């Protein structure tokens, strides 16, 4: 595949300082499709220095001009949508239709939303005898994951640029090719040199160097809770701003009176999307004991329709595949019952996992507590609403959730009891303007919409 053999720093492509390289593998067949540079601390330092040099000029650029550059970036992403989608499919394994509609379509919309916000946001306002200024926080170190590679880049870079910040991006090593295409779009959009910089590399090397760099004012990280804790500690030691979007173990609570067939079908589809590699997936389905057996049968039937290699893609790597299969085996060992799927490999080639549904899952089981990050659904029974709330809130996570009920008032009342950053009511659709982020160990801060923009601003008051 086409890829520049270099880093994008200070508006140009340049060779990496070291000779290390990272193989990019197509998870559908295990073939190496590209090689990118493994950036070093020296590469990170060059990128941060470029971002710091560009910061005063970009911060002083009128919001209307920043908005115009983001509009141009959105147009570049849209124009290269087919190429971007093909790249995501090749390095992540997402089915082509999902790559086109979600993996690329959603970031285009999000980028456009920040172009509009940059033009309309009140960067100055009067409060009594004060003028309150909302100023860019500075240089942003953005560390993005592999599961929604373009979306997470846009969800960090677009609001940071809208706020007047400059950025150094370190994308996940599994999916660097779409990040390189994004850098080409930034360049074509006329965003000034140094405002956006890209360093490919490994997390423990380039990622850590970026988080620790004294020239970085804010670290925005999306990934595992374990790594997020390390980055939070690094930022805390330097009294540096940090935004963390971490793991989840979201509950899909189906209350008595809900449309059970619809709730189960939508719930299974939610878990299977992106091969289960979604931090906000509703991986725990909670059903009243009276209708539990019916829900189990519906879920097993629905999951069987997700045929590996057709309707559902592979996991991103052999390591991730083996990790998910290990969780399935552990679920069986702890007494859960497989009603669909299982740990057996569905295909000879590629990193596929058979979509799996567990019944007779109890809240303390590992598969009901830990984030699996694969196409695995656990069904738990509850006795009453108090029991359902206790189970739903009974993990260290609090990223997302869903509530189904016979009427909206009942669903909303229960949703208010959930320790979660966003809850879908009776199948409510994803809103790219609504804040996205979690409670508890699911993270710190919010992405998307107006709340996502404020993460990259700091406040100053002038008294008169």
- The value of Rg in angstroms is 22 Å
- Strand content is 15-25%
How would you state the average pLDDT, rounded?
97
Q: In terms of structural class, how would the helical and strand content be classed? A: alpha/beta
Shape: globular
What is the share of helical residues? Answer: 40-55%
Describe the 3D structure:
This protein has 464 residues and is α/β, with parallel strands linked by helices. The chain has 15 helices and 20 strands. The protein has helices at residues 41-60, 63-79, 81-92, 96-120, 149-163, 177-188, 203-212, 225-237, 260-272, 292-303, 318-333, 366-369, 385-392, 408-415, 449-454; strands at 7-9, 12-14, 21-26, 31-37, 124-127, 130-136, 139-143, 166-170, 196-198, 218-222, 241-245, 251-254, 284-288, 337-340, 356-359, 376-382, 400-404, 422-425, 443-444, 457-463. The strands form five sheets. Strands 14-15-16-13-12-17-18 form a seven-stranded mixed beta sheet, with helices on both faces. Strands 9-8-7-10-11-19 form a six-stranded mixed beta sheet, sandwiched between helices. A hairpin with a 2-residue loop joins strand 5 and strand 6 (130-136). Helix 2 crosses helix 6 and helix 4 (96-120) packs parallel to helix 5 (149-163). The longest helix is centred in the N-terminal third of the chain and has 25 residues, at 96-120. It is globular.
């Amino acid at each position: 595949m086409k890829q520049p053999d270099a880093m994008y720093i200070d508006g140009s492509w340049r060779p990496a300082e070291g000779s290390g390289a990272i193989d990019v593998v197509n998870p559908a067949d295990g073939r190496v499709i590209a090689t990118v540079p493994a950036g070093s601390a020296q590469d990170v330092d060059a990128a941060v220095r470029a971002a710091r040099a560009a910061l005063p000029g970009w911060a002083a650029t009128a919001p209307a001009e920043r908005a115009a550059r983001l509009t141009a970036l959105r147009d570049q992403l849209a124009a290269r949508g087919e190429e971007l989608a093909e790249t995501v499919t090749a390095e992540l394994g997402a089915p082509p239709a999902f790559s086109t509609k979600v993996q690329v379509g959603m970031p285009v919309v999000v980028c456009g939303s920040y172009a509009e916000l940059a033009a309309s946001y009140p960067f100055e306002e009067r409060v009594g005898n004060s003028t309150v200024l909302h100023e860019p926080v500075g240089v942003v170190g953005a560390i993005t994951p592999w599961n929604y590679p373009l979306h997470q880049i846009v969800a960090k870079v677009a609001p940071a640029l809208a706020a007047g910040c400059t950025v150094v991006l370190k994308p996940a090593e599994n999916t660097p090719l779409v990040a390189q295409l994004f850098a080409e779009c930034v360049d074509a959009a006329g965003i000034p040199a140094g405002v956006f910089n890209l360093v490919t590399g490994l997390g423990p090397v380039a990622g850590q160097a970026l988080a620790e760099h004294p020239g970085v004012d804010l670290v925005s990280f999306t990934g595992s809770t374990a790594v997020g804790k390390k980055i939070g500690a690094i930022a805390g030691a330097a009294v540096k701003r940090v935004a963390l979007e971490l793991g989840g173990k979201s509950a899909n609570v189906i209350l008595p009176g809900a449309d059970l067939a619809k709730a189960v079908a939508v719930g299974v589809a939610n878990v299977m999307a992106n091969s289960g590699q979604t931090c906000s997936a509703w991986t725990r389905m909670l059903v009243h004991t009276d209708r539990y057996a019916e829900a189990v049968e519906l879920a097993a039937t629905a999951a069987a329709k997700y045929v590996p290699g057709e309707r559902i893609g592979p996991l991103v790597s052999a390591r991730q595949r083996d990790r998910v299969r290990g969780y399935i085996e552990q679920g069986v060992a702890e007494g859960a019952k497989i009603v669909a799927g299982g740990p057996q490999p569905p295909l000879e080639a590629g990193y596929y996992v058979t979509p799996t549904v567990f019944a007779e899952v109890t809240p303390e089981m590992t598969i009901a507590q830990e984030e699996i990050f694969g196409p695995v659904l656990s069904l738990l029974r509850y006795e009453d609403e108090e029991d359902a709330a206790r189970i739903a809130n009974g993990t260290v996570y609090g990223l997302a959730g869903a509530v189904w009920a016979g009427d909206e008032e009942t669903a909303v009342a229960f949703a208010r009891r959930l320790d979660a950053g966003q809850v879908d009511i009776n199948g409510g659709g994803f809103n790219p303007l609504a804040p996205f982020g979690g409670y508890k160990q699911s993270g710190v801060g919010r992405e998307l919409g107006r709340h996502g923009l404020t993460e990259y601003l700091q406040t100053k008051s002038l008294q008169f």
